[in-house]
Write a sequence for this structure.
């Protein structure tokens, strides 16, 4: 549900000009691919805390792999810092 919200609700962060709106579908698909990548890495990092079963190579930096009672994953990217965080 969090990934769906990231893709469908926060789409306006992807477009900065009128010409970007013409390419909205590829931008949304790219955001979905990034969210899936973050999810697999964060889930793997969260599982590594419980056991040493590493399946995915960690390429992204995030503050916490999961946070809160619903285990929110870090889908928000901060380009200046180069890290992912929860909303």
């Amino acid at each position: 549900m969090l990934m769906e919200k990231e893709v469908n609700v926060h789409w306006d962060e992807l477009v900065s000009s009128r010409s970007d709106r013409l390419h909205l579908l590829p931008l949304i698909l790219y955001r979905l691919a990034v969210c899936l990548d973050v999810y697999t890495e964060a889930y793997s990092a969260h599982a590594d805390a419980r056991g040493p079963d590493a399946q995915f190579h960690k390429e992204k930096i995030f503050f916490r792999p999961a946070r809160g009672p619903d285990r929110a994953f870090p889908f928000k990217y901060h380009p200046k810092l180069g890290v992912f965080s929860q909303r």
The chain has one domain: 2-85.
